Amino acid sequence: xxYMLGAFLLTLVLSxxxxxxxSRSNGPDHVSISRMSLIQKVTxxxxxxxxxxxxxxxxxxxxPVELVQACLDPTATGDVSGxxxxxxxxxxxxxxxxxxxxFVNSAPHHFNSEAFLEGRGLIIEGLVAIKANIxxxxxxxxxxxxxxxxxxxxxxxxxxxWVELGYTEPYINLIRPDLPLxxxxxxxxxxxxxxxxxxxxxxxxxxxxxxxKLTSGYMGILSADKxxxxxxxxxxxxxxxxxxxxxxxxxxxxxADNVAFHNAAVNVATAAxxxxxxxxxxxxxxxxxxxMMGIARSSVxxxxxxxxxxxxxxxEAAREAVYEIIDSKKGTQDEPSEYILVPFNDxxxxxxxxxxxxxxxxxxxxxxxASGGDDIPEMCLSGLMVALTxxxxxxxxxxxxxxxxxxxxxxxTVMALISSTKSTVSFFITNPVGxxxxxxxxxxxEDYKDLALASGGQAIEVSKSQLPQATDIILDTSTSAxxxxxxxxxxxxxxxxxxxxxxxxxxxITIYITAQSITFTLTNPAGVTQNHNExxxxxxxxxxxxxxxxxxxxxxxxxxTWQINIxxxxxxxxxxxxxxxxxxxxxxxxxxxxxxxGYAVLSGHPQAGQPAILMLSVIGxxxxxSVTIGDVSLVTVSGPETVRNSTITDMGNxxxxxxxxxxxxxEFVVCLKGTDKVSGSDFQRQSTTQMSVSKVxxxxxxxxxxxxxxxxxxxFSVMTQGSGGQYSISARNDKNFPMSKPPSLTLITGQYANSxxxxxxxxxxxxxxxxxxxxEAKSSSGADSNYIVLRFSVVTKITDFxxxxxxxxxxxxxxxxxxxxxxxxxxxxxxxxLSDGNGTGVESVSLRQGSGNLTTTLLSDPIIQANYxxxxxxxxxxFVAVDTVGNVGKCYHSIITDFxxxxxxxxxxxxxxxxxxxxxxxxxxxxxxxxLSDGNGTGVESVSLRQGSGNLTTTLLSDPIIQANYxxxxxxxxxxFVAVDTVGNVGKCYHSIVTDFxxxxxxxxxxxxxxxxxxxxxxxxxxxxxxxxLSDGNGTGVASVSLRQGSGNLTTTLLSDPIIQANYxxxxxxxxxxFVAVDKFENVGKCYHSIVxxxxxxxxxxxxxxxxxxxxxxxxxxx
Length: 1119
Hints:
GBD_Hemicentin/VWA7, signal, single chain, about 20% helix, six-stranded mixed β-sheet, alpha+beta, VWA7, Jelly Rolls, 8 domains
């Protein structure tokens, strides 16, 4: 409970907000380390998959779209979106950063206070859960745990003295519980010297360094007490750093006194992250690893189907739709990556059937039979709830039914799951004939319409004979790159004109209208019109079935601003979609404080009475730099239309922070407008999921896994800024595990009430399953409510941590010639034994490297024999054995005799003509001469340029000494080329003529903010001012100064001045400023200042542990 309370308090006591998981310093942080590691591992995996199938792996750029396109079959037709990959990365980053909010006072989560065994325990527990989740294809749960595990693992290298001890490789024992953690300093061993300044390069005692004793800094939030002689973490939030020995050994941020250790910690933390990811990849297999990372062609196709007696025609229509999707999209980028089927009846529903095999999906839907369900209401929402929690986020879900919902009490839970998952739900409702209606209160098909509208879907009402015509919408939306341009609803209906923008990147543009009675006129940017009764007109083709109008625009439709004028006095909905790789993902967030403040993703509704804050990532055709964001706004879907514009702060990498001060009343969506730089055309995109604000707030944390058969307690807290009183509490989970909860809580305005729910997974629950828990709090009047959705893994406690063992028994390679060019047609053979000792047994053996043939005896044998045969041209073999709990053992052998890479020696560099001022670099040139040799090796086979835009030539590669000559413009100041010998050893040549590596420096000279009131709501019309100086020392000079955060006015004196004065003036409502100075070598210096004042901690009940929120032990690797 202590950790959760700390998290709650941090959301109330705010210091200067920043993009919580991005560094403000001139160094990497958790997100950048994780991003680098994840992208590298995904790229490696995609390359391996391509090479295994004989395909080329070619990346055309660095954007998610281009990486996903290269990872998937690049020859397949159709567009592919990078949104799922970007979303998967964002889920990992989010959970990584939340460790600093949810576990601020937990030493094990950050390897503080010498909590090595406990920290390693968290990593192993997470690793076991990740592997179990992947085995059960619960990829979101795996990603969320991965984010938290990466944070803790990375913190080890910044908070311990690992790099001070001289280690440059990761500590493998942290992810191998079968290996002991050795040479730990005990609690009575002094570890640090006193450092009064707090800026000593290395405070570790000489005997600790000599004996290679492992320690980490102690962190004190409420007390300066620590064991005698122990190192502190350091920093303003650590009270122990003021007690001798003073100072701290944290390498969170790059400072003048710790540059070398900070950089070393970054490098080892990155290598450790890659090591962890490789272990997961080996256990999961390449395909499942990529699925976990969101590398997939298309969103899944998910059907929720009523199987009661009157549904035979509907089941047949769904079957035909599935067959058409499978047959028409095979071999394209729109081929579904997964199929999900959830049947429901009365009283039963499920189970969920999911498969990647299209033939199995055909078989499963063929097996559906209509039976039972004589009375009208059915368990529709129960089936839909299973689909929403089982399908990936942002899925399209199609519900077929002819009956209202018996389980209407689940409507609020389903609404919460729609909002949380951002999935789109469409209903195909047919008119029941001959079925007995039973009284179900106020339940009606209107409930389905509410759910469809909230999700951005359609509620399509047709007769059973018309249903096959209506399912075309499923084909339209089964695509990897579906985008929504516009969605509106009017109830009651009225005449209105709706403008929308179409851009050059879009194709398959379709307009959907649902209404019982309607007329409309469509107009293109040139003024050409087509009305509702022109089935085939100048602008497109119109099909009608039941209450659905489907307008497919011609392929050559003009780009620009279109409009549709609708006339109806009946309720109607309008939706415009297309296919495009230009899209965006977003989350509503809230600020949290501490020494590493940031933003946490909201699970429920944003808080009423406060600005709405979003983190939004834009995905362009060629990466984020290929689009310009014009405007982000919150727009009401159901009239009268209200638009609330925002202020936008660019956070880099395509991410922006969006703040909307005045939020629309009622339900709203996110609208994005911008420009596609590839074509120069304006674009418009809209989110599908509706959102609203609430005065109720619920807090809970998914901090660990559940264990089958064991009762799990989930603490939570509820608060309202509205009227106090009784608030009903509901708690549900998608697996129907037994739960207990309080029926209600009595709330006092502005104060949190604490309680808990218990969940007991049955003892027979398979390890790796996940369970989604939805908590809701609703006022007695029903006027206000909020929810939180949490996902937990259910993992069996394991005791087998030892990987399978491999022993090479024999190698027969005498026939292989030393000259690799003569390798064909000779072969070599290897025999090895594999065993899992007293473990759980070997489950799989797979070839990871080598093009030969691998066979094994039965995996159930206690000793497994592996036989490998390959051409002498394929000289390395690696295969892995994975046991039933995911421990990975490796077999590796090489028959290569040449392991030394080619050597490079730079002989001469002529760069004297290059001017110091890079802006004057043209037309000057520089030259480099180097020699390459392979000594007694097999000889250099290729030389290629890796970095630099100059011209590289060589003498004959068959020469014993090869001369390489490189000539380049002085504007291209770095060259790297590689020499590869005939067995694949790689040698590198690198040279740089860059002389300025130091970023511009910023010093805040004065801040005048005394006029700013402490109560931020009174901030208008007061202003504050800041003056700073910028200089580039002996560097090349400042080239630009730009505002990164803040809505004030920034001016500077001449950039050519040796000392530049920067003046910033802003409203007291805008309390943070960050600007950057970039020199002519693109070194970036930053200025940051905040005038945010702490409001002081809230009053706590006497029974709760006290947590001082602005002094925190949790730590963002300010790498």
